[in-house]
Design a protein that fits this description.
Bound molecules: [cytidine-5'-phosphate] glycerylphosphoric acid ester
CATH architecture of the largest domain: 2-Layer Sandwich
Strand order of the largest sheet: 13-14-15-12-16-17-18-19
CATH superfamily of the largest domain: Dihydrodipicolinate Reductase, domain 2
């Protein structure tokens, strides 16, 4: 009996997939089809798969060609499968020509001619309209955003806005954008969505005006300085039927999702403490340190350490205490926030002028998770136990600088194709706005201008 194996995502199942499976089956007597998991697809750079794995498996099954369906979830699995299932032929479409030649040490490799003029990418494009996105603010993060958006299908950066026309023009020229303007209303006319990356104190106003005009908004952190403003924005977005997302990129990283899943799985028992730190000795001349009102450790970096705390211990803390080390102008060089929950504790530390170990530690009743710096990109973490010899290591994939995951989620939410539960819910974002409000209040009480 000749055993054949083939692999694929089989998203938006189409004729090309059908014909491939038909010919794969004809190569032998028994066909095994490996269908990829979302996580594996993300690891290999496919971040816009639309059908859930159960549907993709069902569609392969319906063809009647597969004698057995397996799931492909990690790199290196093909060799394992070939040995495990005693495979004679591994086959894939000709778009992979040469790529799997290394498997010839284990079995015969056949590249089947790809069916022309049809692909999942093409169908995805037809199914969802391309989001025309405008960028508000053309500072340091904006070029990175444009570069990363290139990796996400279904989005097109079409215009740049800056109240200073020359800055808008220079940015558009550098980024090869067709349009730029210093008129916000005009800017909003020809786009579907905005990315707000302007100075902190302008986020909320730009977001509000865009939502009022029916535009989807991806807003840099902190989105607002008060709880009620955040509530207002989410309420307005809901009324207008648009997506509003706070751009805290760690929340959308696949590795961070995996870390949360492991933390909640019971592997470390009950979660009792979360400690998260993000600090950078920012240049003395950088905005982080020269803007004495809206710069500083907390407003610049506070969102990152707050995410794992809010995600894992929830919104209902009993007590919260904020302490800062200030510079001569009252700007925080370093801030520590301590939370007390009914059954847990948490600490968030952030700094622009004090450096500490940028790690995330999640302590539980059976063990703990240690995610070293840069945990906010979540390239790796460990689960450790009382027995120091027992360590479970995780090395999730991470591509680019992390922005592409946030952009992909934004596009998926606009198209209604994201998973049901948002990766950062409005309630979680509002809870963070409340902490920002507490921080600002505390500064005001100390007589610091805000
Ligand atoms: N295919 C084809 N003709 C098309 C489109 C796809 O023959 N017009 C083939 C691909 O070459 C592949 C299979 O259909 O063999 C599944 O395609 P995808 O779902 O795009 O999966 P892919 O990313 O190619 O996964 O481990 C996964 C494998 O490496 C292949």
């Amino acid at each position: 009996m000749i055993k054949v194996i083939t692999y694929g995502t089989f998203d938006l199942f189409h004729e090309g997939h059908y014909r491939l499976l038909e010919r794969a089956k004809a190569l032998g007597d028994y066909l095994i089809v490996g269908v990829t998991t979302e996580h594996f697809d993300q690891m290999r750079g496919k971040i816009n798969v639309m059908d859930p794995i159960v549907d993709r498996i069902e569609n392969v099954k319906k063809t009647g060609f597969a004698d057995q369906i397996i799931v492909e979830d990690h790199a290196g699995q093909k060799v394992e499968d070939i040995q495990k299932y005693d495979i004679d032929i591994m086959t894939v479409g000709s778009d992979w020509e040469g790529h799997f030649d290394y498997l010839r040490d284990y079995c015969k490799v056949v590249y089947l001619e790809r069916t022309p003029n049809i692909s999942s990418t093409m169908l995805r494009r037809q199914k969802v309209s391309i989001v025309r996105m405008g960028i508000v603010g053309t500072g340091r993060i904006a070029p990175r955003f444009v570069a990363e958006a290139n990796y996400v299908s279904g989005i097109f950066i079409s215009c740049a806005y800056n109240p200073v026309k020359e800055s808008a023009r220079a940015f558009a020229e550098r980024m090869k954008l067709a349009c730029y303007t210093e008129e916000y209303d005009e800017f909003l006319q020809n786009i579907d969505a905005v990315y707000i990356a302007s100075p902190h104190e302008t986020h909320s106003e730009y977001a509000k005006r865009a939502i009022e005009k029916g535009k989807h908004v991806l807003c840099e952190k902190p989105m607002t300085f008060t709880r009620w403003e955040a509530e207002e924005l989410y309420r307005l977005a809901q009324d207008k039927g648009v997506v509003l997302m706070e751009a805290i990129k760690v929340a959308y990283c696949p590795g961070f999702q995996q870390l949360l899943a492991v933390a909640r799985s019971g592997k470390i028992g009950e979660i009792r403490d979360v400690e998260a730190c993000f600090s950078r000795i920012a240049d003395e001349n950088s905005r982080e340190r020269t803007d004495k009102v809206y710069g500083g450790g907390f407003l610049e970096y506070g969102s990152y350490p707050l995410v794992p705390i809010i995600k894992l211990l929830g919104l209902e803390y009993e007590d919260l205490r904020i302490d800062s080390i200030l510079d001569a102008y009252g700007m925080d060089l370093y801030t520590k926030i301590q939370f007390r929950y009914p059954e847990g504790l948490a600490t968030a530390k952030m700094g622009v002028g004090v450096k500490s170990e940028g790690q995330l530690v999640i302590a539980g009743t059976k063990g703990y998770i240690l995610a070293p710096s840069p945990w906010w990109l979540t390239k790796g973490f460990e689960v450790r136990y009382e027995d120091p010899n027992k360590i479970d290591r995780y090395e999730p994939a991470f591509m680019g600088d992390g922005l592409r995951y946030e952009i992909a989620e934004f596009v998926a939410e606009i198209n209604g194709t994201s998973e049901k539960k948002s990766k950062l819910s409005p309630e979680e974002s509002i809870a963070m706005a409340e902490i920002v409000e507490r921080f600002m209040e505390q500064r005001r009480e100390r007589g610091i201008r805000v």
